[in-house]
Prior knowledge:
With 231 residues, the protein is α+β, with helices and mostly antiparallel strands. The protein is 24% helix and 20% strand. It has a six-stranded mixed beta sheet, with helices on both faces. β3 and β4 form a beta hairpin. The longest helix has 15 residues, at 170-184. The radius of gyration is 17 Å and the shape is globular.
Amino acid sequence: MSALPTVRRDTPMRECNTPQWWPEVSAWQTRAFAEWVGASDAVGQTETMSTEPKYSEPNHSEPTSSEAMRHSRAGRIEVRPIEVRDEQRWHELFTAYGVFYETDFDSTVLDGVWAWLLDAHHPLFCLVAELDGRVVGFAHVREQPDTFTAGPGWYLDDLFTEPEARGTGAATALIAAIEQHARAHGGGTIRWITAADNEPAQRVYDRLATRATWVTYELETGSGTGNNAAE
């Protein structure tokens, strides 16, 4: 999970103004998301999903938008880069995400990750999903080199939607936006992990991606918040 990342973006995606690359990523509109109507979220209840392709390639002859849009039964889902104004809401959602995985994030972690998301030179970036104007979910993503292709790869560190928004397709829309961003920046494989007992999430992921057979290992080396944790 901690491979050295390489970021190649002409415009930082953490600025308040919509970055230059976003219209390129979000050219697909409601029509492209039609197959996701009724689909569930990463931790929501699964429902019937269309067998049509999960995305539509951008058609630059059609009008574009600064946001990726999807209409669900509950309202309109919009995916966009995180902005400074989202700080309080992001803190709430990221804290809830930690609780979901039985982890209590202290202020050092919350402030540290938030600083990463606002740092144009940091490899980690964040997309948020809005449901009728309210931020209901987020995805933390980073680019990393892929030694099997000598090209870019992508790692989805965190994906979360609030319980009230599960089943609206917000998480599916976030993954779709990540996929479009990757395609617009050299392609490559998007990888992520989930808990072995998170079966609702796995049912959704099984429809969107290929279940890998790799086994994950972890080797703790001490605190990640200091340069000399052992001293």
